[in-house]
Amino acid sequence: MHFEILVEDQSGKKAIEILVPKIVGELNTFKVHSYKGIGRIPSGMSDTDNAGKRILLDNLPKLLKGYGKTFDGYTADYPAVVIFICDLDDKCLKAFRQELLDILDRCTPKPDTRFCFAIEEGEAWFLGDLNAISVAYPYAKKNVLNSYVNDSICGTWEKLADAVYKGGASKLSVKGYKAVGAEKAKWAEKISPHMNIMKNESPSFCYFRDKLRQLTDNVE
Q: Which of 120, 154, 163, 180 could form a disulfide with 144 if both were Cys (CB 3.0 to 4.6 A apart)?
C-alpha cells in the first residue's frame, strides 16, 4: 500500500517520516507533504488559486480532487490512501471532521482518505511517551511531564517547552513564531526515534497508528 500523508508544518513532517515506518513496516511506501500552516477551508469548499502559498486547508479541496484522479489509476494489488493529519487546536472534533468529510464527498472519483488529529497539538503525541522524552532530554523536568493529562486542552507545546527548554515556554515564546517552529522541529527529530508506538498513551496517536495498521492489515 502507498500512503500520501498531508501535514500542516515541517515539524510534523519530521516526526511522521520517523514514525510511519515503525507502524507500516518496510513493504509499504509513503510520502509526507508538509505545508506552511493549517489555514481554513475555502468558502463554498471551492478550489483556490493559492497553491503557491502552501496552506493546508486552503488547498485541501483541490488536493483531494487531484488524488482522486491519480489514485483511480492504481491497481487493487497496490492501493493508495491519503492520510490527513493536523492539530485539532480549539476546534470541535465532530464538526471539523464533518467539514472535511463534506470536502471528500465532493470529489469524483473519491480518494480513499483518513482524517487524523493531534489533540490538542502534535506535541501531544510526544507527551504520550514520557520515556522517549526522557531519553531524548535526560534533564527534562519530571514534575512538569507527570502533570500532563494525555490529549488534554492545556497548551500542549508550552507544556513540553516547560519540561525541556531552558527557561520554558515563556522564554521561547518571546523569540517569536519562527524560533518556536524551529524548536518544535528539534523536538520531532530528537524524540520521535525513541518512541514506542505500541506503548504511547495519547489516544489521538493511537487512533492514527491503528488506522494505518488496519489499512495495511486489510491489504495483507
A: 163
First to last CA, the chain: 9
H-assigned helices in 87-198: 93-105, 123-127, 130-136, 142-146, 156-164, 168-173, 177-191
pLDDT in tens, 108-167: 999 999 999 999 999 999 999 999 999 999 999 999 999 999 999 999 999 999 999 999
Are 116 and 208 in contact, with CB atoms under 8 Å apart? yes
Residue count of the chain: 220
Instruction: List strands edge to edge, sheet with 2-7.
Output: 29-34, 2-7, 80-87, 113-118
Q: Domains along the chain?
A: 2-121+200-219 (3.40.50), 124-194 (no CATH)
> Residue 175 and residue 171: Cα distance in Å, rounded?
7
Paired residues of 87 in beta bridges? 118
Q: Tell me which H or E stretch contains 82.
A: strand 80-87
Contact 30, 11 (CB under 8 A): no
